Each structure stands twice: as C-alpha cells, then as structure tokens.
Amino acid sequence: MQNGEPIAAIATPPGRGGIGIVRLSGRDLKPFLIALLGRVPKPRFATLAALKDAEGRVIDEGIVLYFSAPHSYTGEDVVELQGHGGMTVLNLLLKRCLELGARLAEPGEFSKRAFLSGKLDLAQAESVADLIDASTAEAARSAMRSLRGEFSREVNALKDGLMELRALTEATLDFPDEEIDFLQQADAFGRLERLRARLAGLLANARQGALLREGAQVALVGRPNVGKSSLLNRLAREEVAIVTEIPGTTRDTIRSHVEIQGVPFHIIDTAGLRETQDAVERIGIERARRAVEAADLVLVVTEYGQGVTPEDEAILRQLPDRLPRVVVRNKIDLAGVAPAVRAEGTTTEVWLSAKTGEGVELLQQELLRQAGWTSSGEGLFMARERHLAALTEAQERLAAAAPAASLGLELFAEELRLAHAALATITGEFTADDLLGQIFSRFCIGK
Ligand code: GDP
Ligand code: ZN
User: For K(+), which residues are the binding ones (predicted)?
Assistant: First the structure.
C-alpha cells in the first residue's frame, strides 16, 4: 500500500515559540532514535534526552515521544522531537533527520499515510485540516465531530442500508418471474423511501456544516456617509470581537470577518475598493463588481431619513438579479423610529441604528436566514463541497431508482449501485490518486 519510507517535517508553525516539534514517520524509526539519542525510548512515554548531530554535539535537549507501529497517527513508527521553538534549532534537528535518511514530508503526508493505513477515513482526514483552519468555535466543534467519525458513521449507515437493498435486488434478478412480488414482500420500496429520507436529513445537515466551514460572502454597498463603516464596526463589536482585518491589495481594509452565532461572514466593503466619491461609478468599477458577483448576498446601506434616493436606486439596479439583498435603513435614531424588518419580494429591509445598536440583532438574524442557516449548531459536523456533491448525486440516483424499477430490475439495481458508489467517495473507499493529491496537498506541512 505504501512503502513506509521515512519522512520528516517541522510540525510547529514557523517563527519563535516556547516549543518546536520535528515529526517523523516511517516503517522503522529505531535507527533514527539510536542515532539521535543513543537508544530506543519506551513507546508512548515522554523521554527527556539530548539530541545529537553527526559529530556527537548536542543540538538541543528536549522531550522525545516514540509511537511504535501500528499504534500511532500514521499507523507507522512515529517520532516527535520536542525541542526549543527557534527556527535555527529546529532546522538543525530537521537537517539531522534528513541526513539520517528521511525525506521532507509533503503537505498533509502524515494524514495521507493515516488514511492509507486505515487509521482515518477520507472524511475524517479532511476534517483534520478543517479543524486546523476553523475560523469560529462552532466550526471547530463541527470539525471535531467529523474527525471523531460522526459524519462517516451516518454515511456508512446509509451505505449499509443500500448494500442490503442491493443484495436483495440482485438475488431477485436470478428469479425473473417473481421479481416484483419478491421485492414487495421484502419491502424494497419502503426501505428505499427510508433511505431517501435519511439521506435528505444528512444532506441538510451537511449543508449547514459546509456553511460553517466556508461562511457566507457578503458585499457591503452604499453611498458615502450612510454608515457602512459604522455598521461593520457594530457587527464586529456585537460579537466576542473575533474580527480579523485582512489588508486588501490596496491601502484600505476591504475584508472583515464577522461571526454571527458561530457562522463566519466574510464582508467585503466595496467602498474600500476605490477612493472615488461617485457611488454610482464606484459600484461600476471592476473590483467592486467582482466582489459583488462573488457574494452570496448584498447588504445595501441607506439612510432612513432620506428614504431611498435616486443614487440608492442606481446602486440597487446594478446588482445582479439573482443576488439576494438586504437593504439597511440606517440612522433610525435620528428619525425616532423603532427597529423593524420588512420583506418585499426578494428584498428585505431592516431598520436600525448603527450608532445605538438598535435593530442590529434583527439584521444578524436576517443575515443568518439569508445565508441559509437553519440550525442551532447542535450536533453538526463539518462537510465540504465535495461531500455535498456526492450526497446530491446519491440523492438523485435514489430518486431515479423507483421509476427505474418499473422499466426493469437491472435498472433499479444499477441506480442503487451508483448511489452507493457516490457515498463511498465521501469516506474514500475507492479514491483516485489525483483526488487524494488534491485533498492532502492543501494541508499544512507536518500534518
Ligand atoms: P460610510 O461612509 O458609509 O462608511 O459611513 P460612516 O460609517 O463613516 O458614517 C458616516 C457618519 O454617519 C459618521 O459621522 C457616523 O457617526 C454617522 N452614523 C453612522 N451610523 C449612524 C447612525 O445609526 N445614527 C447616527 N445618528 N449617525 C450615524
Ligand atoms: Zn466607510
């Protein structure tokens, strides 16, 4: 399955830190341990040792952890050298491991080996990266549930149900005269319906999980001085201040990350994209347009007291039709109006004050609703686009199965087989090498 050639990487992030870790995996790492510390330490115990270079000089003194195969993350021998967290020391340790015959690990190679040796299925391995990349606490908890196998267990339960149904069907194929009777007796169609319902539930959950992972892209538009920046600050402040500002390619900050009930929202302030004061022209410029086009929804800020001005109208007209929009009528404090939500066709209005904070809660609820968040977050697991595509494919196959049965049992059996195959790609039973490459190459080095 894999050759177990030794690989090594610095597993802690680059820079200074209290502790830095060099990680090794390979079929047999005992020669490395003997060369580095003069002995093979007891597996699964923390061993304080001096780590030496080829000349016997001490590179660092630290903790060595040895996990002997197969009781390790990768299923192979794994060694962690925990030294001081300075890049020079860590590079010397890494260099020593390479001298001893290891090669540099590729991104995600440890996790890939864990997958190939059956320690993790593919959905679990993906959740390792998702846990590391999680941008909110809720996203991290979901990734953890996936890593612990909750998503995979649901997928496997569906696969098992499909297997039974397929076995039943294929057995019937050998007795063509009685086939339909036989299937009815075995409640084949009832089973199919139950599997479809279960799959629909799983898909709905997976969509929520994918939202936690990806977040929603929001484009913020509006004339100057209507209160866009104030609103952004307010949204950021209402949360536990998990706001990271990523400087754009221009001088301005154009992206903010705001969390609402654990769901990440990536807000692009299109006003920050260009200095011009001409709002109509501004939204016409290329980068703002692209931001708007990539968005899942648009937040159009207007000023309550001014109503919807011709300039506001012009901005609204330029938004792509497909794009859901929320019109914020800001500064209600000046008009002495109470906060409110008004729905009109595809447009929803929220009346609020960025200054006092009144009505901001309503906007948050509306943003969650528009993003498709229906969950309480309880018991969710992390899912990716790839998983949604596979679940959708399986759903379509199962929808086609019952009509296919009336045309011939072979066709029924074939739809079941294809649904099963789609589900199997999630956990990675039969996975093409290039897909594995794609998935694991996005991991960090050392994971
Ligand atoms: P932007 O140009 O759209 O980003 O608008 P700013 O957020 O910079 O706000 C423009 C001005 O309007 C500032 O003086 C804000 O203090 C003020 N402002 C923003 N929101 C409100 C609000 O809800 N009520 C009141 N009274 N003033 C506001
Ligand atoms: Zn602004």
Answer: 225, 244, 246, 249
